[in-house]
Each structure stands twice: as structure tokens, then as C-alpha cells.
Write a sequence for this structure.
């Protein structure tokens, strides 16, 4: 009987630990818009209005959707995969009123900027 109770206790404790684990996830506590905005260079942040006004969607990243001035070619690993497309409003009065930024759906990691029309 003691073995059964010990086994049940171990299972319950294990489930509690697993449920509380949150590894590199964009948690519900942190908004993906804020997570990605925090990773942007200060030059880009200066152009963005309020990050809370950004819209988020999930898209399949295709070749030719990212800007050509990439610092790291690892972004090409995301081509063909689902990513966040975050449209941040910009302060400028130009015809383009948003800047699109792509991020990993698993951890919110900034990937690259989208092309501007």
C-alpha cells in the first residue's frame, strides 16, 4: 500500500513540475509584440509609435519577404515555416504607415524585417 501511495505522490509532483515549466516560450504574461519590440535596434524603435498598437498574425515565411540587409543568414532557416508577422505602426506621415517584423512563434525571437512596398 505504501508503494502505491508513493507512486501516486511521485506522479502528482511530476505533473506539477511539468505544468510549471516554461522554457523559451513566449508566455501569456509577456505580449509577443513587447518581446519583439525589445529586441529591435534603437534606430527602429525611434520610428515606431506605440508597440501596443501593433497587430500580430501568423504567416508562412516565403523567400523574398525579408529585407535584403540581413546581418545573419540564419533567417533563411525560417523560410517555409510559420512565423509571427508583427505590423508596428510608425510615426512618419509617409504612405507606408507600418513596419513588418518577423519573429519565431516558439520563442518570440526577432528574425528579420519585412520588405516595404
Amino acid at each position: 500500500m505504501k508503494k502505491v501511495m508513493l507512486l501516486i505522490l511521485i506522479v502528482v509532483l511530476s505533473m506539477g513540475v511539468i505544468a510549471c515549466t516554461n522554457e523559451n516560450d513566449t508566455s501569456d504574461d509577456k505580449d509577443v509584440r513587447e518581446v519583439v519590440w525589445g529586441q529591435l535596434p534603437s534606430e527602429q524603435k525611434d520610428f515606431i509609435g506605440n508597440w501596443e498598437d501593433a497587430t500580430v498574425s501568423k504567416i508562412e515565411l516565403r523567400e523574398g519577404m525579408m529585407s535584403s540587409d540581413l546581418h545573419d543568414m540564419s533567417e533563411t532557416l525560417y523560410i517555409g515555416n510559420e512565423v509571427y508577422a508583427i505590423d508596428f505602426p510608425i510615426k512618419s506621415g509617409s504612405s507606408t504607415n507600418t513596419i513588418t517584423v518577423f519573429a519565431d512563434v516558439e520563442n518570440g525571437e526577432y528574425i528579420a524585417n519585412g520588405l516595404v512596398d
In short: The CA atoms of residues 61 and 78 lie 7 Å apart.
